Amino acid sequence: MQEDWRGNGTMLEISHISKTFNPGTVNAKPALEDLSLKVNDGDFITIIGANGAGKSTLFNAISGNFYVDKGSIILDGEDITFLPEYKRAVNIGRLFQDPMRGTAPGMSIEENLTLAAGKGGWLSRINNEQREEFREILKSLDMGLEDRLKHPMGLLSGGQRQAVTLLMATINPPKLLLLDEHTAALDPAAADKILSITKETVEKENLTCLMITHNMQSALELGNRTLMMDGGRIILDVSGDERRGMTVQDLVDRFRTLSGRALDNDRMML
Amino acid sequence: MMTYSLIQTALELGLISSLTVLALYLSYSMLNVCDLSTDGCFTMGATVGAVVAISGHPFLSIPAAMAAGVLSGFIVAILQTRMGIDSLLAGIIVNTAWYSVNIAIMGNASLLNMNKTETVFTGLKGVLDGTILSDSYRLIIAFIAAAFVVAFLAVFLKTRLGLAIRATGNNPDMVKSSSINPAFTTIVGLCIANAFTALSGCLMAQSQKSVNIDIGTGMVTIALASLLIGRVIFKKGGITTGAIGAVLGAIIFRIVYTIALRFNMPAYMLKLVSSVIVIIAISGPYLKSRMPLYAGRLERKRNNA
After folding, report:
1. Which one of A85, A89, A115 has the shortest CB-CB distance to B163?
2. I need a surface site. Which of A20, B41, B47, B304 has the fewest CB within 10 A?
3. Per the CATH hierarchy, to which homologous superfamily does domain A3-91+174-259 belong?
4. Does residue A45 belong to the interface with chain B, where contact is any CB pair within 8 Å?
5. Which residues on A lie below 8 Å from B189 (Cβ)?
6. What is the pLDDT of residues B152-179, one digit of tens each?
């Protein structure tokens, strides 16, 4: 579906990156191994894989949580391989499974949004014009948060916090949006709500997006391309007609053939 | 019976030390950094202020002491954000180093006398001489300083930089994803906080008309005790309420201490008392949360017996 989302250029180009944690010790663990990936402008890619396959590690490498041992990462023509995490955040938005990670619980909704928007000088204060903007975008969530600008973030439910985190990550449309199982910790109703807001936002802003999911069905339904990871590598990359005809059973079978073992992720939903 | 002059002295000391409490409000409550360089920085403010005042510049002594505080805060912040030194250790190291530096500032002495020195206090005393306020000059200066710092924090902590500093203590990951470097906000926060600590030391020395090398010893614990007392008074409320609570906490601490002295508590008990207050204030909520567990264990024991 949605083949027409694709732009022409390459948004993200990862070339032969490797990362080993605790190198030179008995605990040495190769987390990414000679991994390359080219993401087109406008791609919405879903990523699946067993626990420890390197999905989150890949996101950590892209967002700059650590620097890779080898290889390069190019975002929209700019080499970001050695750029610190906070500088990459200008162009990369990220959501985690834990709704607590994306917001400051002791601060109000409007204060959180102000920091995410990053507008005005260091010594500027929140003005009514900004409050109106915040109210507007909060209204689009349809959660009644537009009347709670001054409420502490910590009082919101997990779903509400994740929705605001999504707003914060996309308030300045990023070049790349990384979603790391961002609905997995929510109850089913909240998860559905967040997923539909995600789809709307991605479509509206025409964002390039990578999404890790443990739900194989939505991995095939959402977006235009699916990656399967194992042992720090991408073992399957499907899109277009091939992906359109795929079923969850096909994915499970392909995993067994490609990795030489059964898919043993107990959290994986078939 | 407490005389008026005793209460006034307690108020003065409370307001002057409240500047250090407000510094910890910024570093400890907002940035979530326990800045153990507070003692050394307080003394440095006192020594720099005294030396500048003795050299004949009573009003220059205030900005000079604050500049020394900024420098002290900058160094302790660089150690922890850029050089991989644990924040507690960074404070202890700077504290130790400042002992030597402070003696050097005082010209190889551990005590300076300002009995005949013109200070900001004697300056105002001269102005108010003969008026009804002639005895309150110390209180007025202490009050102005505390009001200035509270007003500054009330405004500053709502600016974008202030928000970023608060968020750094609340969730540093969120600061990074807002494209702000948490190392930067930590450095700025500690520079500002230590400017207030040094101002506090400077005013304390000038009001007592002397500095000795031990003037700051235990300040961090005393200020923490005051901060936590203030927090008990104002459990809820915003940033400004919290800052006012910090000042009230400092005043209450001093008044209680003065009363205790009247009941013949020896003066050297001050530091033991402040340590006990900090222990109770921090461990209290923790022990309270463990109560159900203890109760459950006790009951299990009884049932088994």
Report:
1. A115
2. B304
3. P-loop containing nucleotide triphosphate hydrolases (3.40.50.300)
4. no
5. none
6. 999 999 999 999 999 999 999 999 999 9
B59-94 pLDDT per residue, tens: 999 999 999 999 999 999 999 999 999 999 999 999
Across the interface, whether the CB atoms of A90 and B179 are under 8 A apart is answered yes
CA dist., res. B302 & res. B305, Å (int): 5
- What DSSP character marks residue A215? B
Diameter of chain B by CA atoms? 78
Characterize A165-174 residue by residue with b for buried, 16 or more Cβ atoms within 10 angstroms of its Cβ, and e for exposed.
Answer: bbbbbbbeeb
Inter-residue contact B250 to B230 (CB < 8 Å):
yes
Which residues on chain B place their C-beta less than 8 Å from a C-beta of chain A?
Answer: 158-161, 163-164, 166-167, 170-171, 173-182
Residue whose token pair is 């207050």: B277
- By the 8 A CB rule, do B208 and B112 touch? no
Nearest Cα neighbor of B256 from B281, B273, B278 is B273
Q: Is the Cβ of A28 closer than 8 Å to some Cβ of chain B?
A: no
Interchain proximity B173–A105, CB inside 8 Å: no
A116 touches chain B (CB under 8 A): yes
Q: Do residues A59 and A96 make contact, with C-beta atoms less than 8 angstroms apart?
A: no
Q: Which residues contact B9 (CB under 8 A, 6 or more apart)?
A: B258
CATH class of this structure's domain B4-270: mainly alpha
Please list, in sequence order, all residues whose beta carbon lies within 8 angstroms of the beta carbon of residue A156, skipping any fewer than 6 positions away.
A109, A145, A164
Yes or no, beta carbons of A123 and B178 under 8 Å apart: no
Tokens of B43: 């003394």
Contact residues, chain A, for B180 at CB < 8 Å: 86, 115, 118
DSSP class of residue B115 equals T
Query: Taking the model in full, what pTM does it have?
Result: 0.90
List alpha helices for B106-136, DSSP H: 120-128
ipTM value, please give it: 0.88
